[in-house]
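Journal club prep — side note

Before the paper discussion, L.F. wants everyone to see what a predicted structure for a comparable chain looks like in token form. Sequence:
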Amino acid sequence: IALPVVTCTADSLISGEPTNFTATVTSGGVAPFSYAWSFGDNASGIGDTVSHIYQLAGNYSYQVNVTDSNGCAGFCSGAIILSSRLKAGFVASPTNGCSTLKVNFINTSIYAITYLWDFGDGATSVIANPIHYYANPGAYTVTLMAFGATGTDSSTVTSQIFVYQSPVANFQAFISGDTAYLADNSVDALSWNWNFGDGGTSTIQNPIHEYSGNGNYTISLIVSNAYGCSDTTVKPGFVKIQVGIEEVVSGFKFQVFPNPFNDQLHISLAPETDIKSSFYGESRMKISLMNIEGQKIISENKIVHQGVQQFNIEGFTGKLVSGMYLLEVDYNGNKKYAKLIYKE
């Protein structure tokens, strides 16, 4: 009787995963047959079909010895190369924040050789551990494709990166004498931090600031929104204070009442003590009501006769909403101002 003639095969050649071995007697010998395997890593097995897990990648020689019922033996041997399984993976930090958001991507892939990143905003990279900046608010899905000797793998995290909307800082100013009336024109702002350029600061939205001396002052404003995102604007020399003698001694004084006002507003006008002689006689006076941004709402000309005058201003209230206003009184080219509060 001829000796057993044996063939053998192995598949699934990935370390850490089962490798399947099969032996077949094609001729010779007398059944039944016994099979004894040696896998080349000091491990063994029995049976015509067996599975074995190699823990490490590398080159291995295997052999199966076959014995028939009469004790006659045959064998089959072979060599295999075990590769490591490619796996794509990554982590990102931070995963949320204000625009422009800087994100560090750490590649945790194993057994990869090259990479392709898709950051979800149209940008890509082939760097192993890239840094990416997200300029626009929104949610972004990030994908990493890893390429290695055993093929391709990918890892995707849906809506992994979330970028919050940042506010936009902006403001205007209206100057009257030595006083600046600041008006916030920011977008999506919840808090304000003003610096008036002379050491003064404020955290209210529309502050009023009085300067102690002439000069050009740089104003800065930092605003924040509900997410804690902030923006800063700096306007060099934005406020120009130049108060002369003629503006300080303007030739008249006046009182406004009531304040706050509603449907009645009265102005009591009188001369300064040192220029009484120039006050008497018929003169023109212009009254203007402006909002805090310096926009003129109503303007009215009055004829002023000698002596103390009192004006009852009506018809303004239909154009007003509750808040702060500025009253400008122009008497013979000399101007004075008063801050008023209107309550509906």
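L.F.'s comment for the group: The radius of gyration is 44 Å. Keep this in mind when we get to the figures.
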